[in-house]
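Narrative summary of target 7.
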Amino acid sequence: IAGNNYLIELVKLNKYVRDHKAIPMKSVLLTTILGTQILADDKISFTDLPTGFKILFGRLDDFLQKYETPPVIFNPALPSEYFNRHWDQKSFEESKKQIHSVRSLIDEAFYLADTEKSLDKWREVFGDEFPLCDEDIGKAVAPSVAFSLGSAAHCQPVIAIPWCLGESL
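Modeled conformation, tokenized:
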């Protein structure tokens, strides 16, 4: 459903930002919320990773901003199980605040016409160790340490979850 099969990479990027910014949100909560934000027309919306990342992170922020208290997040594979045990009011409010702040950086980085200023803003989002492109289109800036987003071997397609139709709740 997510265009160009970007969902795994987009979730990894969101988790990377969560870890880099020390956002107090458990992986199971972040992944589940992100999964519910995928829409049927995302096949055409997610034209590339930066666009998909901006869209999905924005939806995450929009979702969280609707709530004053932690929303009920249930296990998509077992709807009788709730993941709220991983969240309290304090960590919810901090996550919501930080995600909103990072979204502003992402939006700025995405829309800046000046490549160098855009790269500086993306570095604020991801940190200096994250590989980015420099002014020479397509030339990656090598990070000073090895970089990996990790394995996705445990993942299953969204459509494999019985109740999920690829629509936002």
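Confidence is low (pLDDT under 50) at residues 135-150.
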